UniProtKB/TrEMBL annotation:
GO terms for biological process: negative regulation of DNA-templated transcription. Belongs to the FrmR/RcnR family. The keyword Metal-binding applies. It comes from Bdellovibrio bacteriovorus. Transmembrane segments: none annotated. PANTHER family: COPPER-SENSING TRANSCRIPTIONAL REPRESSOR CSOR, TRANSCRIPTIONAL REPRESSOR FRMR-RELATED. It is found in: Cytoplasm. Homodimer. The keyword Cytoplasm applies. This is Copper-sensing transcriptional repressor CsoR. One of its GO terms (molecular function) is metal ion binding.
Length: 86
């Protein structure tokens, strides 16, 4: 992306991604340990929810940052493109 300034949500998004990483590491260990499928599925669900939440916070913050009125070089094409991932 073209914007270098760190957005307010970056610390929160980073924490969410680290949480997802922890869930994913747990899933990998559970599979290696041949844990019950339902338990693995539950952890996989936690991974996808954590990633989805991180993505949502990140994208919404980016859009809000671009539209805050202080952005002189507003790139509508970039906003249109990033909204595809919401």
């Amino acid at each position: 992306m073209s914007h270098k300034k760190q957005h307010a949500s970056h610390e929160d998004v980073s924490k969410r991604l680290k949480r997802a990483k922890g869930h994913l590491e747990t899933v990998i260990k559970m599979i290696a340990d041949e844990r019950a499928c339902v338990d693995v599925a539950r952890q996989l669900h936690a991974v996808t929810k954590a990633l989805s939440a991180a993505k949502s916070v990140y994208i919404h913050d980016h859009i809000e940052h671009c539209l805050d009125g202080n952005h002189k070089d507003l790139d509508l094409d970039e906003i249109k493109e990033i909204t595809k991932y919401i």
